[in-house]
Amino acid sequence: MDDLEPFTVESIKRDSKSNSIRFWQKGTREKGSGYLQYPVIYLSLKRLFPIGEDDQIKESSKVVLSPQEIEDFKKLHNEILISFDKIEQPQYVESKDKNTLGVNTDQYDWMLNSAGQDNLGKIILALMSFRRLSATYPNNYKGGILAIDELDSALYPASQIKLFEVLRRYASKYNIQIIFTTHSLPLIKKACEVYKECQLHSTSSDQIQILYLEKKDGNILFTNIKSYDTIQNRLNVSLSVHPCSKINVYTEDDEARIFIKNLLPRNLISRLNFLQVNMGCDQLIALVSNRIPAFLMPQSLIILDGDASVKINSRIKWERRGIERNVICLPGMCSPERAIAEYLYNLSESDSFWTTVNPDYSKQVCFRDYSLDIIKSDRVKAKAWFNEQSVYWGKASNKAIRKWKKENEDAVANFVSEVRDIYNKFASELGYDILR
Fold first, then answer.
1. Where does this protein have coiled-coil stretches (predicted)?
2. Rounded to whole angstroms, how far apart are CA atoms 269 and 262?
C-alpha cells in the first residue's frame, strides 16, 4: 500500500450465469494482485475455552519471546490485571482449539491460569505480533487490523478499563485499527467518555467510533450512538425517566433573544435555555472554532444575527476540524433591531399596525429621534431606538415582531426548521425526546 500508489478496488461479475460479483484491484488481474498486504488478527470466543479443560493443550516452542518481549508481557499483564504476582516466565501453549501465552508465577503455573489471564494472554500476544511486524518490516509495515469478539470476557471492570487504555496506546503507536464487541457497561461508558474527549480536537476526532448493533425483524442493524444513557437503556431493556433537559442557547444580545422567542413555537422554546450572556459574533465564532467544549455540540446551540452568515462559513472549518454544525443565523441579512426598523420604515403611514399599537402611535413617533440611516449605520443607536420603541410594542415586542414575521413566513419557517433539526441532533445524542 504505497502512499503514492493507491489501492483502488472495482467490482466485476464472477460469471455470466449468476448476478454475484467479486472485488478486485482496478487495472490488473494478475495472480496475487487482488490481495492487500494488511495483516489482520481475529480473536473469536474460541480463545476462551478453559485451559484446564483442554486435554490436548501443551507447551510449545513455535513462538519464542525475546527478553524484551518477556519483560513487556510481564508489565502489561500486571498493569491490566492490577496484579502484584511475580511472573517467572510467560509460556506459549497450544492445542487444536487454542494458542495463547500462559503465565508461570512463583505460586502457580500456566495450567492454573484464570479465564481472564487466558483471555489477556491471547490479546497481548496479538499486540506483540503487530509490534514484531513493525520492527521486522519497517519500510513495508503500514499497520493492521485487530478484531476481538467480546473483549471484556472474564475480566473484571477495572481490568477492562486498563485493557482499553493499553489498546489505545498500541493502536496509536503501531497504527492498528482495533475493532471489538462488548456488552460491558463500564467499558462502554469509558469508550463514550474517551469519544467525547477526542471530539475536542480535530486531530483525534475520528479515533473512536461507537456502533450499537441490534436485531430487528430478523436483520442486524447498526446505529451510531454517542450517548451512554441510550446504550444503557437498550442493553437493560429499560427506559430511564429524565426530566426534559434544556439545551443552552447563546446569542449576541437581548434583542436577539427577544426576536428568537417571537419566531419559535412554544414546544421548541420550552426545550431551550436562553443564557443571559451577551457576546459578540466574533467572540462566539472564535469559541466554536477553537473547540471550547461548552460551545460545541451537544452542549450548546449558538444563534447569531443575520449578518454573520459569511463569517460563520469562512472562519469555522466544520468538516476539516471535525466540528458538528451548531451555529445558525437569524432570518435576514442584518441584526434584529435593524430588520424591524427597515420593515417599519417601509410600512405605509396609514397601515393599521400603527393604531393597533396605540391610537396615538405613528410612523413619526417611531422614527422621531433616530432616522433609518442612523439606525443602519450605528449599532449602539440602533439598540437604543429598539429599546425605546419596544415599550410601545407589547410584551416581548410581540406586536412589531409578529407583524414582521407574517411578512417573512418562508424565512421564518426555514429558521424554525433549522433550529428544530439541530435540537433533534442534540436530543438524539443525549437521549432526549425528538421533536416532530
1. none
2. 10
